[in-house]
Amino acid sequence: MSVKIETYFKALDTLKKAALTAEFDIQIAQALNQRDILLLTMPKLIIRNVQMTILALQLDDLNIKPDPVLTVKLLKQLNHAENYASTQDQRQKIASLQSILR
Fold this sequence. Notes:
Layout lengths: L2 H19 L3 H36 L7 H17 L3 H14 L1
């Protein structure tokens, strides 16, 4: 899994904790607003990460068998992206990448 994507997942968790432990309404609102922005951005980042990973594997060796652990990680990322995809184009790309990985 890309380090950048892992960092975004950790940031989501941190923002959730921040919202739950905040003492003032403005702190809760800020944490939730930042989380919402991140959730809107993540599908695009995940799609790009999965596309680049697949491309890199194809360029390395056409006869290589896919790593099942990597495939599961990428499919989990795509499932997360699917939950927050905001456009039809994103949903189509996610479905296409899922079918490639399966």
